[in-house]
Amino acid sequence: MCKKHKLRHGAALEHGEAHNLEHQTWTRRDFLSATGLLGAGSFLLNNLPVRAFQPSPLLASLAASGGSNDRVLVLIRLDGGNDALNTVVERGSSFYYNLRPTLGIPDNQLWALSPQYGMPLYTNALQPLWNDGMMKVIFNVGYEPPNYSHFRSSDIIASASDPDVKENTGWMGRFLSNEYAAFLEAPPTIPPALNIGVQSNLVFQSAGINMALSVSSPQEFYQIAQTGQLYPTAGLDAVPRDLELAFVRQTANSAFRYAKTIQEAYSSGKNQVTYPSATVNPLAEQMAIIARLIKGNLGTRIFMVEITGFDTHVAQKNMHQLLLTQVATAVRSFYDDLAFGNSGLEKKVLGMTFSEFGRSIYENGSFGTDHGWGTHTLLFGGDIGNGFEGQYQDMSNPDPVGDPPNSVDFRSIYATVLQNWLGNSPDLSNFVMGKSFPTIPNLVPGIAPALGDNNQCALLGHNPHTGAAGTYDIKFSMMQNGPVRLQILDKAGHVIRTLIDAYQNKGSHTFHFKPAEWFVAPGVYQYRLQAGGQVFQREIRV
What we know:
Helix content: 25-40%
Number of domains: 2
Strand content: 15-25%
Radius of gyration: 26 Å
Number of strands: 23
Low-confidence stretches: 24-68
Number of helices: 13
Mean pLDDT: 83
Largest sheet: 9 strands, mixed
Structural class: alpha/beta
Shape: elongated
């Protein structure tokens, strides 16, 4: 049956130029990134790209939350289009084995998720997570109609847009910038999100601001974590060339506002299990860094890692086995590390895989699979239980041109994570997605939406100063160090005085505001506090 399959033109390697065009936009992006031209503020030092780290408003507020919601989300990107059917196999399906005469995985080489479904034995590192109620599978996730270009489909998945709409912001970017409008004026000192081994991703893009600290490799991260800077300035001579180089390096290092908090968390945290070596499993190294930062109480709540190579057009069997083995062992080591010593951290961290699309249900003539429709999403940790959501691909009556339609819109997963895992309102979720998408009941444990937004700081109010006539005490509290701006506004909302525009330490603060000294006439005004990426405002009559 597979040999009669009519490939959609451009999906396979043998389609030549048409297939190259599907990859071309990726190639252009890689070129721009490699040359330091991708993203505002990029430049090169010693042929290494340096990006301006510009975290987002919402992720800024999520960072170092002082509230009860300390849940963490780890996004695991399977770059290239993961083959769903060989990740979770429908056991005993004659349709599956007919479509995949050489790639089909025999039942005796599977471990059982259930009597109906199994995973390859080389992923059995995940079996304890499944048995302990820390793993779920969402079948056949995608969107309609599908786009088979890596670049375009990746942007659709990142932006949560309809396939025919080109959106320049990401789902988390819109969410966070809407909630935390004062990031640029009063940013936090803890990275709100962290990408390791991932290019600055559209997921975190807001209007003009990329919300995640992007570290292109674990080695780049180690440099920051161990020295507090990325580019060494010692050992340079007092000659013009070295003086200029020192200046540029110092300027770059000063942009890394998170270096101190990263260094402190990395020093405080400790990996307490042995991860696979970086040469054997580069994903495991990324996951080890995240575990150490979580255990070191960094406060960042959104992480993203990446493993490449899932574009398996040719000789898929060995490559896909290697990739899934790396995912399984990295994830297992990560959750064993979080759970070490009965810490309970593994219940606060949700891992979620995603990929730009799946692979065709048909095996091709090169013993691989071509670009297809839906793929499976795997969830880990978070005390989520185990089980399945959605409907597995129906292979009983295959279309000779296309694949079975997806069963779960990826945006329903996003909406569920935003509302039930991160604790946000349906109204905000609908705004982020541009429309309402149904959440998936019981997918993850729910948490009530936060009451107010006082996680980063709080404007506590004001009262007349007891010892000084005509003076008011304006009180606020900071949950982390960082820039603070306190201003007086008139009735029309125009700023007329800036009382504070300075870096403040965490803790409680009181500003003694005497209107006469600031030449503020009697009347009704607003006072506005910007701190931790948030905005607070109250009325005052003087």
